[in-house]
Amino acid sequence: MDSMIPLIIIGLAIAVILSIIVRKFPALAILDVENIPGEKETKFKEQIMKARVERDLATVTGFFGRIWLWLSKHLGEVLKSQQDKLRRVKLNYQAAKKMSRTDKQQQIRKLLGEADEAAKKEDLALAEEKLLEAISLDQKNLPAFFRLGRLYEDQKKWAEARETLQYALHLSLKRRAEGEGRKGEDDLPETAAQEIYFLLAGVEKESGDLDAALDNIHEALGLEPASPRYLDLILDLSIMKKDRDLAAQYWQKLAAVNPENQKLEEWQKKIE
To answer: Residues with Cβ < 8 Å from 86, sequence gap 6 or more?
Structure first.
């Protein structure tokens, strides 16, 4: 993708240059050249055309030159940052091979704590880096994947959030099926399958895929049918989809489990 940027810029520059040249030829027709002899008229037109085109080309090339310099600088910084990040993760992974399980778990707990602190300070790049380091130490660490997915959701990186949370869901469902339930930092309420389904539903809702959002929240409700948060979301989605029957069904369920909900009256009006 990065290699296409220079070609796109060059193509745009050529298109603009051609459009300028084409526009300048009709402009010569309105010049008052009645008193200019034939040869002088031709030369005069050429000079005017050349001056105008050169003037506009200088403006255009200067504009695209500034864009190219800006892109080169910032793309270089981004690429260097990503390369540094990958290099650190690789070194961390190599070091993890030599660590005992106890040391590895201690290091992961430390990295997750540092990621939480960075997120609180809104240093999301550092939080992501710490979570990736934790994952490089244990590629089945469910809390690290869950928090990384939530971090991407906060940044509105829907594709990255979806992919990361789907892998977290895979880990959660696998453990549920196998009855592993590893104690410690992996045994957290937030990493339960229904909570990941709920977060995925929110990601799909925000990215505009309401059908996928409904699929995920249905799965969450299948595991925890009386959750007010899950019922709240599916009610919102059913109203957005203009599915009156579904909305009425879940309005009744929400009213039963959470009659104090301040939005019940508003939802009822929308359904009616």
So the answer is: none
- pLDDT tens digits along 94-107: 555 567 778 888 99
**Contact indicator for 133, 109 with CB cutoff of 8 Å:** no
Long-range Cβ contact pairs of 198-201 (< 8 A, separation 24 or more):
198/227, 198/229, 198/230, 198/233, 199/146, 199/149, 199/150, 199/153, 199/165, 200/162, 200/165, 200/166, 200/169, 201/233, 201/237
Q: What share of the chain is helix, strand, coil (3-state, %, to 5)?
A: 80, 0, 20
Task: Please give the structure tokens belonging to residue 186.
Answer: 């992996």
Give the chain's radius of gyration (CA, Å): 30
Q: Is 133 exposed, middle or buried (0-12, 13-18, 19+ CB in 10 A)?
A: buried
Assigned token pair, 128: 């992501």
pLDDT tens digits for 4-52?
565 566 566 566 555 554 444 443 343 444 444 454 445 555 555 555 6
Residue type, 48: I
pTM of this structure:
0.64
Q: Check if the beta carbon of residue 67 is closer than 8 Å to that of residue 13.
A: no
Nearest to 168 by CA among 187, 181, 149: 149
